[in-house]
Design a protein that fits this description.
- It contains no helices and eleven strands.
- It is mostly beta strands.
């Protein structure tokens, strides 16, 4: 059974940093594309970052490019999202997801498995 469990969310001041982790079971992060999305209240779920199963390519949403970094820890079967220079507009529930097969890695509907989400709140 595939399970994705996010952790690391919390409250941080603007300009600060936070690292989210996604513990993966049932699949291995070096055989599936992995992504991060976020959703603020009343807003659509937004693509944040993704990494291909080979680790060769990473992708970022325009709003986080240069500030966030996605990475994999293959030994721990974990996907992390390092968030730096956080802004109040980064406040959202952050979800990790795994993509089965092929498709547009930036589109939510492409992903097969999702975690429950972790809340990130950035205060000004």
């Amino acid at each position: 059974q595939v399970q994705l469990v996010e952790s690391g969310g919390g409250l941080v001041q603007a300009g600060g940093s936070l690292r989210l982790s996604c513990a993966v079971s049932g699949i291995t992060v070096d055989y599936y594309h992995m992504g991060w999305f976020r959703q603020a209240p009343g807003k659509e779920r937004e693509f944040v970052a993704a990494v291909t199963w080979t680790g060769t390519y990473t992708y970022y949403g325009d709003s986080v490019k240069g500030r966030f970094t996605i990475s994999r820890d293959i030994a721990k079967n974990r996907v992390d999202l390092q968030m730096n220079s956080l802004k109040p507009e980064d406040t959202a529930v952050y979800y990790c997801a795994a993509l089965r097969g092929n498709g547009n890695i930036r589109i939510m509907s492409t992903y097969s498995w999702w975690g429950q989400g972790t809340q990130v709140t950035v205060s000004s």
